[in-house]
Amino acid sequence: MRMHCRYSLSIVFFSLLPAMKSRNSILHFNIPKSEQELSPGLIDQAWIMQIQRRRTILWFSRHEPGVNHVLVTGGAGYIGSHAALRLLKDSYRVTIVDNLSRGNLGAVRILQELFPEPGRFQFIYADLEDAKVVHKIFSQNAFDAVMHFAAVAYVGESTLDPLKYYHNITSNTLTVLEAMATHGVPTLIYSSTCATYGEPEKMPITEETPQLPINPYGKAKKMSEDIILDFHKNSNMAIMILRYFNVIGSDPNGRLGEAPRPELWKHGRISGACFDAARGIIPGLKVRGTDYKTADGTFIRDYIDVTDLVDAHVKALEKARPGKAGIYNVGTGRGKSVKEFVEACKAATGVPIKIDFLPRRRGDYAEVYSDPTKIRNELNWTAKYTDLQESLQIARRWQKSHLNGYGLSVATS
Questions:
Q1: What are the φ/ψ torsions at residue 72 (nearest 5 degrees)?
Q2: 3-class state of residue 89 by DSSP
Q3: How far is CA 221 from CA 130, 174, 229, 398, in A?
Q4: Tens-digit pLDDT profile for residues 202-223
Q5: SS3 category, 205
Q6: Chain centre to alpha carbon of residue 408
Q7: Nearest 5 degrees, angle CA 335-CA 339-CA 345?
Q8: What's the gap between Cα 292 and its chain centre?
């Protein structure tokens, strides 16, 4: 393998890939047809890298007393990368598996730069749809737990391409669960969603609220939950399912943020749309639906800061026990309308954003906010970053300093 790089990055490939080239030449991978294509200097470099890779495999392929090795699927994405950062800060050993179809290699690079010590962090480029590849990853790594984030996650897109969502969410979760069972990985922290509840008649939402999802995204997540819980009935695996609400914010220290691909902006979170409107990338903000049965006619959501969200995941990991399954809502317990959100975004950006009011989007629901009592009592977790404007200001700072996201272009499927 020929590699030109300015940064040391432990990357493993488990499938045949096209050449990956970064816009600013940080990473460039090609596979030479023969050793003759390598210059003597590159042969030496390739040999050194091979030795380093073998040493890395030793770190990650064995269990060590006092070291917890967590697989973070989808760890190059917005939420997954923040979770990986928190785990690394807390001295966990972390492996990220991501196919980069929605994630960012730039986030992976930042994590590697922050935690360069041998045996701390590795990134595996792989697709969870390939069961053979997934089982190979599990056979070559000694995982103590899995945080399963990897998923496409846009309500609107799910109504346009439902089969993609059932494959990516439900089928891939089954593949991960089978690999965990086969290779004896004892703990699963599953990233689920409030979309599994659909449009409940009563607020706030508790864990006992009936799950009646109304879009393919929510349905696919509920199917995954059902598979996990059915499996758990005859398993000693520790299971934690976290149903979280609308995620906003970014790392308070400015290291990571949200950088969706341009082709996904139309499906993305309202915070990203607000920032794009403030920057003039889009002419204004589209608010879909003003006739909901709410105080101001726009829908109400429970906005949870990503820092609080990953804290809940870590607490769930710490509290997970063999043979037990826990299900928790992760939210603030307070709903905000879209109009309230827009006003907070205007204040956070200092820009008088133009608002266009449009008809409802198919699959959306009027009012969703959580009752966080259970997670507070059982996991000792409470949302701390509850000032909507402050969370948006933090995210805005990252956006302003990363006008092109992470600035990387990678080959994707």
A1: -110, 100
A2: helix
A3: 20, 11, 12, 30
A4: 999 999 999 999 999 999 999 9
A5: strand
A6: 18
A7: 95
A8: 30
Cα–Cα distances (Å) from 356 to 23, 140, 178, 246, in that order, read 35, 52, 47, 22
Active-site positions read: 217
CB 316 within 8 A of CB 189: yes
Query: Does the predicted model carry a pTM greater than 0.90?
Result: no
Between the alpha carbon of residue 164 and those of residues 159, 182, 217, the distances in Å are: 10, 26, 10
Buried-state track 346-377, b at ≥16 Cβ within 10 A, e below 16: bebbebebeeeeeeeeebbbbbbbbbbebbee
Who contacts 209 (Cβ-Cβ below 8 Å, separation ≥6)?
197, 200, 202
* Strands lying side by side in the sheet with 2-3: 2-3, 28-30, 20-21
Compute how many other C-beta atoms are within 10 angstroms of the C-beta atom of residue 101: 16
Model confidence pLDDT, tens digit, residues 117-128:
999 999 999 999
Q: Is 28 helix (H, G, I), strand (E, B) or coil?
A: strand
